[in-house]
Design a protein that fits this description.
Chains A, B: GO terms for molecular function: hydrolase activity. The structure is a homodimer of 222-residue chains. With 222 residues, chain A is α+β, with helices and mostly antiparallel strands. In chain A, 31% of the residues lie in helices and 27% in strands. The longest helix of chain A is centred in the middle third of the chain and has 15 residues, at 134-148. At the A-B interface, helix 1 and strand 5 of A face helix 1 and strand 5 of B.
């Protein structure tokens, strides 16, 4: 301790998933921030910054996310802490948070705060080469989302309060990056406790479709 | 940065669960280390220590665990990072790891390395008041173990390679701290992919019981 270069610093970063509209279908995307200083000046990185001595790690994640992207998700959850020796030119331990954010809330927050400079949304399956080990972190977050987050959490995080099973399936297809069989999907969800049927229906040019609600009491393991 | 007292330091701690024998039944226990210096001198704490600038957080967890308890689990998994401002007299961010360790391996390691000083195993449901926020950390680890770790992980972590359904049920009862209905338990497990039946049987005074193996390919979410 104390020698020059022996310092370990703590940073926070956040991976925010949202579905952004595309002519074809919704695409799963995350916001990145272009770095304006060395190291990795000019490259894209996850939103984040240094932990301040007077704030908790969770508060630091929310603060740095708001400062860099003007986004304020309704919740942030700790994902993982990355602390390998060689992940940065100096010694940095990064506590990484994540959240799912509904696209209508992204748009609403943007219309209030304005679109911040140096921020762009990128398709998770077509990320550029990022600063530090941020490609690795984004891949880990995506792996967790695709493999360990259940239907009800996806529904709660990326959809409005009420939705049809087709809408949920389309969201799930965007997250997984592949098509799902509609009847199998319906059978699986109707038999689970993840969703609660409502007495409302979505009407339109197709036949009326029942609206469902996320069942907060049957929350699955992350 | 740089003012005295403004320093943020990174520590690692580890929660090791094992089943320790008791006349009645096995009890779920964790090893604690008695502190030999201030703050909290003389109180029990989770095994751990400072992150060294030249090692990754995972290596630091394994090193400090071995140095304090002489235990070397076959794997350590990151649990959570605790980074509230007031969790320690100085500013410390603790990256916490956990593992499940079979009791026969605990005994084997102890017979090689000797029982280290200042280490004792405590029943998770009867912990003393611990140093720092370590009661909170232990409770969080126990909550995760009881709520979010499935049958197959428990089996893989706390039982020998092959075991009967009754043995698994007894382990699960120790983890959960309550009795389970034997026929419901059998029905649930026989229908799952978490376990693979072998062609071997446990014989003895009761009727022969089939031995099962943990199915590594059907690993559940933590």
């Amino acid at each position: 301790m104390g020698r020059a270069g022996d310092e370990i610093r703590v940073a926070v970063s956040t991976v925010i998933f949202s579905l952004r509209q595309d002519p074809d279908s919704d695409r799963l995307m995350i916001p990145l921030v272009r770095r304006t200083r060395e190291p990795y000046e000019g490259m894209w990185a996850l939103p984040g910054g240094w932990l301040d001595v007077a704030e908790g790690v969770h508060e630091a994640a929310a603060r740095t996310l708001e400062e860099t992207t003007a986004l304020t998700p309704s919740y942030l959850e700790q994902l993982y802490t990355f602390g390998e020796v060689d992940r940065s030119p100096t010694r940095v331990v990064s506590v990484v948070y994540w959240a799912l954010l509904r696209s209508d809330l992204v748009d609403a927050q943007r219309s209030v705060a304005g679109a911040p400079e140096n921020v762009e949304w990128f398709d998770v399956d077509a990320l550029p080469t990022l600063a530090f080990d941020h490609n690795h972190i984004a891949e880990y977050a995506l792996w967790r989302l695709r493999n360990k987050v259940g239907y009800s959490r996806i529904a709660a995080g990326l959809l409005p309060d009420e939705f049809t099973l087709s809408e949920l399936r389309e969201v799930y297809e965007s997250v997984l990056g592949r098509r799902l069989d509609p009847s199998n999907f319906r059978r699986l969800l109707e038999g689970s406790e993840a969703l609660v049927p409502t007495e409302s229906f979505r009407t339109g040019k197709h036949r009326p479709a029942r609206l469902y609600r996320y069942n907060a009491e049957a929350d699955e393991a992350l």
